[in-house]
Write a structure and sequence with these properties.
Strand order of the largest sheet: 1-4
Low-confidence stretches: none
Mean pLDDT: 89
Distance between the termini: 41 Å
Shape: flat
Structural class: alpha+beta
Number of helices: 4
Largest sheet: 2 strands, antiparallel
Radius of gyration: 24 Å
Helix content: 10-25%
Length: about 200
């Protein structure tokens, strides 16, 4: 009996958010982009609807050249091979690296009536777990749903998937439309911490 082999979700190391302020929940998705299909259609605006369903050019991943200057050294004094060295030439080593076409879609009642993700799916955007690409045949791991955060080591909270509990709390504060204390001294920091301590997001 043949067994179906299911590819595992791939890792893609993304940056964490550094600006920790209340914000809407943001769903990380992948956007279809294809210069080949666009050129064949006479331009991006002339692409037919649902073109991404038949595109054969890996539209959810962009492959870019990364150039790394690599120096070659020689000893200043040939008789002292482990001494000072000089650069005799520098070569540009080019590698091709894949980068998923990440895009953030806000999920909040006050934005697009909460239908941002629904509209993105209609435009051909997909969840990273749904990606089927030669580079990522089994998809890519889910991303953190905090603004500007692409970390993949996420945990499930009551209001979404986040890599840090503080992020889940800040999104909850934003959703509640509570005035968040601005941090400018030790006293305001304490008030701010007190606000977050009252927010319950653990499942």
């Amino acid at each position: 009996m043949n067994e179906t082999v299911v590819a595992e979700l791939a890792s893609w190391k993304g940056p964490r958010a550094y600006r920790m302020q209340p914000c809407s929940r943001e769903i990380k998705m992948l956007r279809p982009i294809c210069g080949v299909c666009a050129a064949a259609s006479g331009g991006k605006k002339y692409l037919p609807s649902l073109w991404f369903e038949t595109c054969q050019h890996d539209p959810y991943v962009t492959y870019r050249e990364v150039t790394t200057p690599t120096p070659t050294y020689e000893p200043v004094d040939p008789e002292v091979p482990n001494g000072a060295k000089k650069v005799v030439r520098v070569e540009d080593i080019v590698t091709i690296e894949p980068r998923p076409n990440w895009v953030s879609t806000s999920l909040a009642g006050g934005l697009n009536k909460g239908r941002g993700v629904e509209r993105a799916l209609w435009k051909g955007f997909i969840y990273p777990q749904s990606l089927r690409s030669p580079t990522y045949p089994g998809g890519i791991k889910r991303r953190c749903q905090f603004r500007d955060c692409l970390a993949e080591d996420v945990k499930r909270f009551t209001n979404g998937w986040f890599c840090r509990e503080e992020e889940a709390k800040l999104v909850a504060v934003s959703d509640s439309e509570t005035t968040y204390q601005v941090s400018f001294d030790a006293r305001s920091d304490k008030i701010q911490k007190g606000q977050l301590d009252t927010v319950q997001v653990r499942t």
